[in-house]
Every structure is written in structure tokens, then in C-alpha cells.
## 1
Amino acid sequence: GIQVEQSPPDLILQEGANSTLRCNFSDSVNNLQWFHQNPWGQLINLFYIPSGTKQNGRLSATTVATERYSLLYISSSQTTDSGVYFCAVDRGGDDKIIFGKGTRLHILP
Amino acid sequence: NAGVTQTPKFRVLKTGQSMTLLCAQDMNHEYMYWYRQDPGMGLRLIHYSVGEGTTAKGEVPDGYNVSRLKKQNFLLGLESAAPSQTSVYFCASSYEPDRGSHEQYFGPGTRLTVT
């Protein structure tokens, strides 16, 4: 099956800093999503981005499907950005969705 | 829209007891999923369904059964709970054929402890 690797596994930043999270996948995919799991455990959709670039406020994401990676950019970090960021992929149709192990982000005030 | 809801939110079971977790979605999604999340393991797919009346095994199906008798509901059953099934369980749904979207939406989770 598809392997999904996220890096870095852990990231500690000062409030106001920018960060880039990476998701590599081992095979072609039709669907890719980024999620944020907040400290209360809630999973929040950030981007549905099988290819291309999307932006939503301070967050943006780029997926280069041909090179099998996706990047999540967080600018001007706030303490509320803390939590775990997951990337999830699948090949479409009835294929299973596979999650990476996540990047744990901690923003210091 | 309520989105994806799960009941119960918390449960404590003794080893050998059985229970059913209920997931409901009101987005007319075709696909539904059950995941478990353990510390340091990310999310692992237990079972999923691509339509009413269908189910399929995910990555970690042993010890669980599922049913999808109605499109909006997906049930996860534990017939004989074991301490290894202590986890947080998430339900999700996806796939709107009209929009061609596979965007996945998650419920709030169920925290299960088996003693």
C-alpha cells in the first residue's frame, strides 16, 4: 500500500514564526487532505488539495502530484495553531485512505 | 447540518463486554469510515463502507464488526472488548458524487477505555 511520511515529526516555534510541513507519499494519489488536530482532539479540515495550490488566511498548501509531495505553510504562527497536523492520501474509488503519523507543532507565546 | 456525530462520547468497559458505537452523518455522503487513534500511531483505518449495505476491512479490523444498514449510519461493534482496544475512535464520511469531492469530514471522537 501507499506509504505516507510526514516531516518533521515535532516542531517548536515562537509565536509569529513561519513554518513548512511536508508530506511525502510513495505512489500516485487522486486525493490528498491536510487536517489539524487541536489539543482537544478535534480533527479539522484544512485543505482538500490533490494538486495545485490553495490558500486560506495564514495557511496555504501546495501539492506536486508528479513528484509525490505536499507542503503546508503556516505564516505568522499563533498559539492556537498548536496541535498535530496530518496528511492523508488515497488513490480514489474504493481505495483506502492512508494517514501519515503527523507533525506535532507547539507554538510558544 | 450537524455534520458527523458520534455516540457515546466516552465509555468504560470491562474485558469481555460488548458495545456498539454509532456514527451518523447528514451530508448524504456515500463513504463512511471508522478509525482508531492511539498515542504516537496516528489514525488507523478499522473498517469502511463505500455505500449502504457494503463494508470492507481496513488496516486493523480484528476484534471489530461493522454494519451500514442505512446510508446515514455506520455502526462499529466490539463483541468481546479487550484492553488493547482502549483507544479514541473516530468516524468520518466522504464522497459527494454530484460534486466529485472526496473531502473527508470527521466526528468528534469516542474515548473508550477497557479495563
Note: Chain A has no helices and eleven strands.
## 2
Amino acid sequence: GDSVTQMEGPVTLSEEAFLTINCTYTATGYPSLFWYVQYPGEGLQLLLKATKADDKGSNKGFEATYRKETTSFHLEKGSVQVSDSAVYFCAQNSGYALNFGKGTSLLVTP
Amino acid sequence: GAGVSQSPSNKVTEKGKDVELRCDPISGHTALYWYRQSLGQGLEFLIYFQGNSAPDKSGLPSDRFSAERTGGSVSTLTIQRTQQEDSAVYLCASTEYLGEQYFGPGTRLTVT
């Protein structure tokens, strides 16, 4: 069945470091792909999305490109900030519901 | 405008008791989802309501779980005879038809 796999955390980085969080998916069709972020004590928020192959989603300095050939949607940011500390979830739409990865916890230290 | 709200924010209950969790979706959103977030299982889809159509209950883990949506708005998730493995954060999301899902803050359920 459809599934999403993302790298396990926690990931700890120093401020201004480069971030990559890997995400791969399996799907029978052509899903839309998403990254959601959950800041401490808050609900899930959509960070970015891509709806078809080669689309690049971007928001708040984060980017991810929908790679059909590698079935991947890796999240990147060139220079992380302490305020980026959160849990990041990769997801695909499986029909109308969302199918999530298990989440990657990111801690950015000053 | 107001986002998705959920109540209570925290619930502690004894094993075997029934609990009700409430979700108030964004006004005008026709679709409503319940998800469960638990350690080791990540985020799991539970149930989906769209307008007046019959709900998709395919994600409910057992017949102890049920949900209803009254008047196409507020939804209640009921867990009967709670078990310790039901401890999790229960998330509600709403959306316009096929639109972006907006999530509530969740209800943290602890079964002792």
C-alpha cells in the first residue's frame, strides 16, 4: 500500500547549518506531497506542498522538490534558525486523507 | 478567522471508561478528519466526513471507536471502554472540498 518513510531523528544542528530531512514514498498513483511542521505545544501546520513531478514547494526558506524518478521529497533549508526547532512530517494524500511519515524532530542550538 | 478548535485539550481517564472528544471545524469547511498521533505509530487516519455523505470509517482501529458529525459542523469522537493503548493525541482537521487540511491543536488522551 501507499506509505511514507522519513529519516528518524532527532536531528541536532547548530544555528545557520544546512538542513536536509529525507523523505521517500510509495504510491500506486500520483499523489500530492506535503511537509507539515509541528512547533512545540502547537498543532500541525502545512509548511509546503507539491502536486506533481518536478514541482518545487517552498516556504519560510524551506524547499522540497517532487522527484518521481527517486520517489522522494526531501526537505532542505540553507541556514536553520533556533526558531525552526520542531517536528517535521512528510505526507502524501492517499485518496482524500493524508498518509504521514513518523516525523523527524529537529533541534537547532544557538 | 477562527481555526479548528478541539476540546478538551487534555483528558485523563481510567481504563474501561468512555470518553468523548469534540472538534469544531472552520466555518464553511465541508470535510472533517480525525487522526491519531501516538508514539511508535506516528499519525494515523481514523475517519473522514464529507458533507452529507456516509463517513469513511476505514481507519477506526476497533468497534470501540465511533464518531459523528452533527449538522455538518461539530464532530464528536467517542471511545468506549478505553484501553491504555488508546493513549494518544487525537487531531481533528477540516478542509474545503479537496483543499488544504487545517489541523486543530489536538486532545491529549491519557488512559490510566
Note: The CA atoms of residues 38 and 88 of chain B lie 5 Å apart.
